[in-house]
């Protein structure tokens, strides 16, 4: 049986020896999902904003790539364009939310999520509507086609590595600190010269761009796209993934995506009931370890003594922002 | 003109459904500062309690309704509070929100696997009569929903604002630690919140299932509509739910008739964004003031 | 321990997570007197209050209140036994009105019929609260919010009142007013345990002083003695601050 | 002497509440100005209007003679104006040291440069000095949310100094701070004031602190200035005693 | 190894859950019968059900996985989008994919390994169009459809057929899956003044639509395809369903004993009446059995080859219910029905012969 331990693979990047085409496919899907989830983690975990539209951004990336590739553009260009498109839409979407308080960004993204889905579905001339777009070819690299699953897996792994490094760099830079400041206390941050509007937009747009980039890889991975995976429900699942993995923890999205993508594998014996089990697991997880799997790991590995959020929360409302 | 009236009336009737579902959002927001993403499923589920009572146990409808309400209080009230909310109330909003997302999956899949994936007809509390007033057709069930929605919201508004228990519930939401210091039975207040929400959900379920049909996936669209209604009306005001609900119902119908059927869902959402931009506290909401 | 102690801490240890803050604290608080706790920032004063009131579990040691062991009591049980607590910082219900905030202070009052009268009494004492009775509490100024909190804490008729730095944010006039009320209460037989950084003024009206440092009670003495203790003056009373001037 | 800060006829109403009703004053370079007044007299509201946190109903604020009305707090901060808030405002889940670095980083280099530059934006040493000064050394790597009230208050004040500001507005920096620390805080303010000619405006109810620190005091009551002048003179003013100090 | 595993990659959750569960129950029933009767070529079969969550990406993953284990055939998906996303995989693996999609374009994509279990819209819509022209004698038709791949595909197909027959399209209304309120749609239909209305919605929406139509007194012929005349819609809509007419591809109410017997068995086992997706799942298994027996071996490529041009008759394979033939694009051909709803019952009024006989 295929019991995948994702940790074995991230480190060395070698597809599991027993993996067949499907295994490689699933691993690739996991990476793609993790890229999008990293974006959500930046928005939700670090900057403390809320997004219910990541799937829509994945969709934007997927459609941009599909259309460009079908029109004969090289994949590299389509990939960049997908990121840029998602970034730009992210900025436009962030603007109205700046006028108001925190939760409203979530509401705006929720509305956007549904609107984007409607556009994907209704504008058949462009997006193929409910029939979707098929036959999206995989890129070629130096004249070498990545049609084979394993080749494409390596390609995606390389991109994931680059994107992971980039995000890690952003988060450990002063920008990352500013993002955290948005989460913790935007008013105080503003008074310390942190341009809250700009950083809010940046966090949201960068996170969304990661969604777009993930979408750009998703389209050639599946070789077919239609509006369904870009609806509101999947956006919620991205949030869920990130929090289950551990919001605000760097490895969180990878773990969360692994759970979301690979858990159905592990629960295969349960057939139709796997969603039930998944839901129960998530709820139990939240109840006993709201900091997610990475939070749990930190707690269990005593090496790093860093009080968790729960332990340091002031008992009285003293520091309530 | 008759068409317009028909659209308006139908929209109001559907809007009352949304309002009933939206009350739960505002109630939970006001009393536990949580967004319950399972609210749609909360309204979907009780009808199935009644169906189980009727088809599996062979009980008459009236008894089944009572059973549905009691079961809802146990499952959506007591169990939800003890199993989901209690461990999470101190952990901030995000884990709780995530838990409700998972819960919505659980309820939906549970009903599908345990009962059926098929839509089920559901008996109505009101006789199946269609009234025709000035060329406009209205069914009695719709009127019933409208009246009940209004009544409930008025009662709830009064309860939260004008009774001590109601205010203790609000206090618990706004600052549970201080509420505890002052001796507010915080646990009990949270429980009340969820019991009330459960009863409301059960009522909504029983009222709307004859129109909507009982189906495991009903919560999806209902939840979204209710959510939008709650924001439009004003998240922190129970009476906002009714205005928001009715407005969304009407706007949705008018949009389908006069804008585009394939973009009808978009119009309430655009309204939502407009509201957020120009009146973020919602139509009836009050401004939350003083940030510094 | 004489009959005149109402609260005792016996080797109490407590803290947050892995951190131990109260480190074997031992103290005895006299009945019907004002005791002021002073100490440097981070000494564990507030932690001591939270532990006494049952918000923070004591890891070891024993706390007795009014003759009974209350080491494991919950806040609600402490309230029912006649202790109330006004915490440090800002602790209002921001979206409720001022009147409703006040009213919530009386939740634990055994005789609810007196609540209205008590609220009236408080509003008479602090007219600004009456003026703003219908306003949302979050719209009050910083000091007004603290005042609201103090007034809310004074609603009950406790045997012992824990009050953590009530003077922060209050204008001198208001501080005098609050201290006067505390003295009145003491005269009626209520025990007051007070934390103050405004130490001189607080000790001047207190009966006893308790100096807490690094989670341990270093000095327990009559307020006058504490005030005149040269070590205290140097360590805690800010010897460097405006030595010549004394405020009226 | 040039006025660093000119406040011209600022007024702010919330619905029917007239919190500030036409306040004007100048603050000169190198001055330490105290603002006192009864609770609810409009002091914090005035600060919030000056610093762009609230839009005043009317009036104008000038920095170095330039009208800055309508500028956002972060823009003002980058002009060299920093502040503290009356209610505690730290970043609870960042460590003390991170709090301090954050407080200074937006003043270092360009935004893009910060993205590619050092992790601590070159502020590590400055932060450590600040930590030592406020005797928070043992807490440097604790989350700020776990500090005691007074410690957070000190941290809050320390953050206001991280960027080397020219003008600092402090809203009740002394509340809850131990008197010994308070004396150091006062000395620190005075030292900075001497060395960099930084200007301070301080709202405070602790009269000893205000009297010892400030060279001039403005007294607000019901949103208006009722007295202004040398500390000693203000303290003797019967209007002030009546409204604020008591007897 | 005595049992062979056959993967069913179907919509068990998400928008297609109802459809997928019908298929699941139908195919399970068939598998049990076949196993009780000795299996396929002496081997017992075991169906494995894998959820696509109604998402093409997941469907693709699941099909990929199933193919890695080299099954003799793949069942599903049912949503046409998911079929589109997966048909290349099965073609590459040279494995028969017996699926439930009805979109017209599926069989047009040149896969030699795709097989329908019901009429594609490219077959059913011409029949409806003929019916509208010949029986209803409509000069103008209003179309109301659900805006998903099922409804949109049907809408595109019917409009093409109507145009070819010079029938005007008086209104073209899309509705949402899960839509509750059809007041606006009915008003628009009333305004359109068409000779007939073609309704192409899912079950619940069909029922809600019919109720609203009755409430507002929409007195035009309501014509549907299979779903609209299904028992489920009749149950849900009550007397509002009376009078609707249309074409029925496959129905448990067909006046054919084998089908009715199947309906009873299904009802007894699962306690509800199957819709045509239940029938699709059921016959899928029998298709496989017949093809494997024709090929004489359990080898994927041989089975697929055997299905091409295969006619399965109920006398040899009773489970196929009605004689059916597959051409070399995988299109199914069999008889179908015209029917209407009378007094809460579906009544078959006419049997339409196979297209090619
Ligand atoms: N919620 C908490 N989580 C972790 N540590 C805490 C928490 N609250 C306080 N501490 C730590 O406990 C120590 C004592 O805190 P406490 O609040 O009791 O001090 P205090 O004497 O009241 O000081 P202050 O005069 O500043 O109010 C501090 O050093 C602080 O770091
Ligand atoms: N958002 C608001 N809405 C309504 N009234 C407000 C609001 N903010 C402040 N006020 C009122 O304005 C007045 C001035 O408040 P402000 O906070 O400026 O007082 P302050 O001088 O800082 O008092 P303190 O010394 O108590 O901090 C108060 O009466 C207060 O109730
Ligand atoms: Mg303290
Ligand atoms: Mg103030």
UniProtKB/TrEMBL annotation, chain A:
<keyword id="KW-1133">Transmembrane helix</keyword>
<dbReference type="GO" id="GO:0005886">
    <property type="term" value="C:plasma membrane"/>
</dbReference>
<dbReference type="InterPro" id="IPR001851">
    <property type="entry name" value="ABC_transp_permease"/>
</dbReference>
<feature type="transmembrane region" description="Helical">
    <location>
        <begin position="25"/>
        <end position="44"/>
    </location>
</feature>
<keyword id="KW-0812">Transmembrane</keyword>
<dbReference type="InterPro" id="IPR043428">
    <property type="entry name" value="LivM-like"/>
</dbReference>
<dbReference type="Pfam" id="PF02653">
    <property type="entry name" value="BPD_transp_2"/>
</dbReference>
<feature type="transmembrane region" description="Helical">
    <location>
        <begin position="152"/>
        <end position="171"/>
    </location>
</feature>
<keyword id="KW-1003">Cell membrane</keyword>
<feature type="transmembrane region" description="Helical">
    <location>
        <begin position="51"/>
        <end position="69"/>
    </location>
</feature>
<feature type="transmembrane region" description="Helical">
    <location>
        <begin position="75"/>
        <end position="97"/>
    </location>
</feature>
<feature type="transmembrane region" description="Helical">
    <location>
        <begin position="198"/>
        <end position="218"/>
    </location>
</feature>
Automatic annotation (TrEMBL), chain B:
<dbReference type="GO" id="GO:0006865">
    <property type="term" value="P:amino acid transport"/>
</dbReference>
<dbReference type="GO" id="GO:0022857">
    <property type="term" value="F:transmembrane transporter activity"/>
</dbReference>
<keyword id="KW-1133">Transmembrane helix</keyword>
<feature type="transmembrane region" description="Helical">
    <location>
        <begin position="7"/>
        <end position="29"/>
    </location>
</feature>
<keyword id="KW-0472">Membrane</keyword>
<keyword id="KW-1003">Cell membrane</keyword>
<dbReference type="Pfam" id="PF02653">
    <property type="entry name" value="BPD_transp_2"/>
</dbReference>
<dbReference type="InterPro" id="IPR052157">
    <property type="entry name" value="BCAA_transport_permease"/>
</dbReference>
<keyword id="KW-0812">Transmembrane</keyword>
<keyword id="KW-0029">Amino-acid transport</keyword>
<feature type="transmembrane region" description="Helical">
    <location>
        <begin position="92"/>
        <end position="111"/>
    </location>
</feature>
<feature type="transmembrane region" description="Helical">
    <location>
        <begin position="49"/>
        <end position="80"/>
    </location>
</feature>
Automatic annotation (TrEMBL), chain C:
<dbReference type="InterPro" id="IPR003439">
    <property type="entry name" value="ABC_transporter-like_ATP-bd"/>
</dbReference>
<dbReference type="InterPro" id="IPR017871">
    <property type="entry name" value="ABC_transporter-like_CS"/>
</dbReference>
<keyword id="KW-0067">ATP-binding</keyword>
<dbReference type="Pfam" id="PF00005">
    <property type="entry name" value="ABC_tran"/>
</dbReference>
<feature type="domain" description="ABC transporter">
    <location>
        <begin position="7"/>
        <end position="239"/>
    </location>
</feature>
<keyword id="KW-0029">Amino-acid transport</keyword>
<dbReference type="GO" id="GO:0015658">
    <property type="term" value="F:branched-chain amino acid transmembrane transporter activity"/>
</dbReference>
<dbReference type="GO" id="GO:0016887">
    <property type="term" value="F:ATP hydrolysis activity"/>
</dbReference>
<comment type="similarity">
    <text>Belongs to the ABC transporter superfamily.</text>
</comment>
<dbReference type="GO" id="GO:0015807">
    <property type="term" value="P:L-amino acid transport"/>
</dbReference>
<dbReference type="InterPro" id="IPR027417">
    <property type="entry name" value="P-loop_NTPase"/>
</dbReference>
<protein>
    <submittedName>
        <fullName>ABC transporter ATP-binding protein</fullName>
    </submittedName>
</protein>
TrEMBL record, chain D:
<dbReference type="InterPro" id="IPR003439">
    <property type="entry name" value="ABC_transporter-like_ATP-bd"/>
</dbReference>
<keyword id="KW-0067">ATP-binding</keyword>
<feature type="domain" description="ABC transporter">
    <location>
        <begin position="5"/>
        <end position="247"/>
    </location>
</feature>
<dbReference type="InterPro" id="IPR027417">
    <property type="entry name" value="P-loop_NTPase"/>
</dbReference>
<keyword id="KW-0813">Transport</keyword>
<dbReference type="GO" id="GO:0005886">
    <property type="term" value="C:plasma membrane"/>
</dbReference>
<keyword id="KW-0547">Nucleotide-binding</keyword>
<dbReference type="GO" id="GO:0016887">
    <property type="term" value="F:ATP hydrolysis activity"/>
</dbReference>
<dbReference type="InterPro" id="IPR032823">
    <property type="entry name" value="BCA_ABC_TP_C"/>
</dbReference>
<protein>
    <submittedName>
        <fullName>ABC transporter ATP-binding protein</fullName>
    </submittedName>
</protein>
<dbReference type="InterPro" id="IPR003593">
    <property type="entry name" value="AAA+_ATPase"/>
</dbReference>
<dbReference type="Pfam" id="PF00005">
    <property type="entry name" value="ABC_tran"/>
</dbReference>
């Amino acid at each position: 049986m295929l019991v995948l331990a994702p940790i074995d693979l991230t480190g060395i990047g070698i597809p599991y020896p027993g993996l067949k085409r499907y295994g490689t496919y699933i691993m690739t899907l996991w990476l793609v999902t993790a890229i999008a989830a990293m974006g959500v983690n930046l928005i939700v975990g670090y900057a403390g904003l809320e997004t219910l539209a990541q799937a829509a951004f994945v969709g934007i990336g997927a459609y941009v790539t599909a259309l460009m590739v079908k029109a004969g553009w090289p994949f590299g260009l389509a990939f960049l364009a997908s990121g840029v498109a998602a970034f730009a839409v992210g900025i436009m979407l962030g603007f109205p939310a700046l006028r108001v308080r925190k939760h409203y960004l979530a509401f705006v993204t929720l509305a956007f999520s549904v609107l984007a889905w409607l556009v994907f579905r209704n504008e058949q001339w462009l997006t193929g509507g409910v029939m979707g777009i098929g036959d999206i070819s995989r890129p070629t690299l130096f004249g070498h086609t990545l049609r084979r699953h394993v080749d494409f897996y390596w390609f995606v792994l390389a991109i994931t590595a680059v994107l992971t490094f980039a995000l890690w760099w952003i988060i450990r830079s002063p920008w990352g600190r500013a993002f955290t400041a948005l989460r913790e206390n935007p008013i105080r941050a503003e008074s310390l010269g942190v341009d809250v509007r700009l950083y809010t937009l940046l966090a949201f747009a960068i996170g969304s761009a990661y969604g777009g980039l993930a979408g750009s890889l998703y389209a050639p991975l599946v070789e077919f796209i239609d509006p369904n995976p870009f609806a509101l429900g999947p956006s919620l699942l991205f949030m869920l993934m990130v929090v289950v993995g551990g919001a605000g923890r760097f490895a969180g999205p990878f773990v969360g995506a692994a759970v979301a993508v690979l858990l159905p594998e592990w629960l295969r014996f349960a057939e139709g009931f796997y969603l039930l089990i998944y839901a129960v697991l998530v709820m139990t997880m939240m109840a006993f370890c709201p900091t997610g799997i990475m939070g749990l790991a930190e707690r269990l590995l005593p090496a790093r003594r860093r009080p968790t959020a729960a332990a340091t929360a002031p008992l009285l409302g003293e520091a309530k922002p | 003109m008759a068409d317009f009236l028909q659209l308006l009336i139908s929209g109001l009737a559907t809007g009352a459904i949304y309002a009933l579902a939206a009350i739960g959002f505002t109630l939970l927001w006001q009393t536990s500062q949580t967004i319950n993403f399972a609210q749609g499923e909360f309204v979907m589920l009780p009808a199935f309690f009644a169906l189980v009572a009727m088809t599996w146990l062979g009980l008459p409808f009236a008894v089944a309704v009572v059973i549905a309400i009691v079961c809802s209080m146990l499952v959506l009230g007591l169990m939800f509070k003890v199993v989901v909310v209690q461990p999470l109330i101190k952990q901030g909003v995000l884990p709780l929100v995530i838990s409700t997302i998972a819960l919505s999956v659980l309820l939906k899949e549970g009903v599908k696997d345990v009962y059926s994936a098929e839509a089920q007809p559901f008996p109505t509390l009101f006789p199946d009569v269609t009234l025709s007033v000035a060329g406009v057709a209205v069914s009695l069930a719709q009127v019933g929903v409208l009246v009940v929605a209004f009544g409930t919201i008025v009662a709830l508004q009064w309860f939260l604002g004008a009774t001590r228990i109601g205010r203790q519930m609000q206090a618990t939401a706004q600052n549970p630690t201080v509420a505890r210091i002052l001796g507010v039975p915080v646990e009990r207040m949270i429980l009340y919140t969820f019991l009330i929400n459960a009863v409301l959900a059960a009522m909504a379920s029983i009222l709307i299932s004859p129109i909507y049909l009982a189906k495991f996936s009903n919560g999806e669209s209902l939840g979204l509509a209710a959510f939008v209604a709650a924001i439009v009306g004003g998240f922190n005001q129970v009476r906002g739910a009714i205005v928001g609900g009715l407005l969304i119902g009407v706007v949705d119908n008018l949009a389908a008739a006069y804008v585009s059927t394939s973009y009808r869902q978009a119009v309430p959402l655009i309204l939502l964004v407009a509201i957020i931009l120009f009146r973020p506290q919602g139509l009836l909401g009050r401004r939350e003031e003083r940030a510094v | 321990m004489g009959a005149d102690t109402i609260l005792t801490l016996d080797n109490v240890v407590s803290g947050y997570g892995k951190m131990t803050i109260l480190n074997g604290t031992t103290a005895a608080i006299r009945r019907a007197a004002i005791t002021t706790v002073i100490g440097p920032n981070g000494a564990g004063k507030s932690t001591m209050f939270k532990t006494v009131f049952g918000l923070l579990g004591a890891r070891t040691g024993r706390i007795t209140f009014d003759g009974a062991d209350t080491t494991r009591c919950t806040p609600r049980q402490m309230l029912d036994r006649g202790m109330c607590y006004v915490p440090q910082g800002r602790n209002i219900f921001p979206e409720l009105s001022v009147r409703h905030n006040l009213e919530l202070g009386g939740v634990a009052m055994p005789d609810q019929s007196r609540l209205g009268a008590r609220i009236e009494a408080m509003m008479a004492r602090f007219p600004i609260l009456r003026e703003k009775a219908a306003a949302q509490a979050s719209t009050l100024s910083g000091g007004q919010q603290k005042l609201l909190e103090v007034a809310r804490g004074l609603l009950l008729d406790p045997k012992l009142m824990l009050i953590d730095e009530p003077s922060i944010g209050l204008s001198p006039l208001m501080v005098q007013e609050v201290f006067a009320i505390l003295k009145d209460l003491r005269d009626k037989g209520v025990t007051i345990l007070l934390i103050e950084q405004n130490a001189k003024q607080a000790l001047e009206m207190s009966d006893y002083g308790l100096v807490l440092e690094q989670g341990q009670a270093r000095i327990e003495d009559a307020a006058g003695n504490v005030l005149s203790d040269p070590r205290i003056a140097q360590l805690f009373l800010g010897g460097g601050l405006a030595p010549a001037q004394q405020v009226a | 002497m040039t006025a660093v800060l000119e406040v011209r006829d600022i007024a702010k109403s919330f619905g029917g509440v007239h919190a500030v009703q036409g306040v004007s004053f100048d603050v000169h370079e190198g001055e330490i100005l105290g603002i006192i007044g009864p609770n609810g007299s409009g002091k914090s509201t005035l600060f919030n209007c000056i610093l762009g946190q609230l839009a005043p109903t009317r009036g104008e604020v000038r920095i170095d003679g330039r009208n800055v009305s309508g500028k956002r707090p972060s823009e003002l901060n980058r002009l060299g104006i920093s502040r503290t808030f009356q209610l505690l405002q730290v970043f609870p889940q960042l460590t003390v040291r991170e709090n301090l670095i954050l407080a200074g980083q937006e003043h270092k280099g360009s935004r893009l440069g910060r993205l590619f530059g050092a992790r601590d934006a070159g502020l590590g040493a400055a932060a450590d000095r600040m930590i030592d000064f406020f005797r928070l050394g043992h807490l440097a790597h604790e989350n700020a949310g776990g500090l005691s009230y007074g410690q957070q208050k000190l941290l809050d004040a320390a953050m206001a100094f991280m960027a080397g500001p020219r003008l600092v507005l402090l809203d009740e920096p002394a509340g809850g701070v131990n008197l010994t620390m308070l004396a150091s805080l006062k000395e620190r303010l005075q030292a900075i004031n001497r060395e960099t000619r930084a200007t301070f405006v301080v709202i405070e109810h602790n009269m000893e602190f205000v009297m010892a620190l400030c060279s001039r005091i403005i007294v607000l009551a019901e949103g208006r200035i009722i007295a202004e002048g040398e500390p000693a003179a203000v303290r003797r003013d019967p209007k002030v005693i009546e409204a604020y100090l008591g007897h | 190894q005595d049992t062979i595993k056959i993967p069913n990659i179907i919509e068990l959750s998400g928008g297609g859950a109802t459809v997928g569960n019908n298929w699941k129950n139908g195919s399970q029933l068939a598998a049990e019968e076949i196993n009780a009767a000795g299996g396929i070529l002496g081997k017992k079969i075991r169906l494995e059900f894998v959820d696509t969550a109604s998402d093409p990406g997941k469907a693709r993953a699941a099909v990929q996985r199933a193919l890695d284990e080299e099954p003799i055939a793949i069942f599903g998906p049912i949503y046409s989008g998911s079929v589109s996303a997966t048909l290349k995989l099965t073609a590459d693996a040279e494995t028969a994919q017996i699926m439930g999609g009805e979109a017209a374009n599926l069989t047009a994509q040149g896969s030699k390994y795709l097989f329908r279990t019901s009429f594609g819209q490219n077959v059913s819509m011409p029949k409806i169009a003929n019916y509208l022209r010949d029986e209803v004698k409509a000069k103008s038709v209003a179309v109301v459809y659900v805006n998903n791949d099922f409804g949109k595909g049907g809408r595109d197909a019917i409009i093409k057929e109507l145009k070819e027959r010079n029938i005007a399209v008086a209104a073209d209304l899309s509705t949402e899956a899960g839509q509750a309120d059809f007041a606006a749609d009915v008003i628009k239909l009333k305004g359109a003044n068409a000779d007939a209305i073609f309704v192409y919605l899912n079950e619940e929406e069909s029922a809600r639509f019919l109720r609203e139509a009755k409430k507002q007194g929409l007195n035009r012929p309501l014509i549907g395809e299979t779903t609209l005349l299904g028992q489920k819609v009749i149950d849900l809509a009550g007397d509002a369903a009376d009078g609707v007419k249309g074409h029925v591809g496959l129905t448990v109410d067909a006046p054919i004993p084998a089908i009715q017997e199947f309906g009873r068995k299904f009802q007894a086992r699962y306690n509800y009446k199957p819709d045509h997706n239940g029938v699709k799942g059921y016959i899928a298994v029998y298709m496989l059995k017949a093809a494997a027996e024709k090929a004489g071996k359990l080898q994927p490529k041989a089975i697929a080859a055997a299905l091409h041009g295969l006619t399965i008759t109920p006398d040899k394979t009773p489970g196929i219910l009605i004689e059916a033939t597959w051409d070399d694009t995988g299109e199914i051909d069999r008889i179908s029905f015209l029917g209407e709803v009378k007094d809460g019952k579906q009544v078959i009024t006419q049997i339409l012969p196979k297209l090619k006989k």
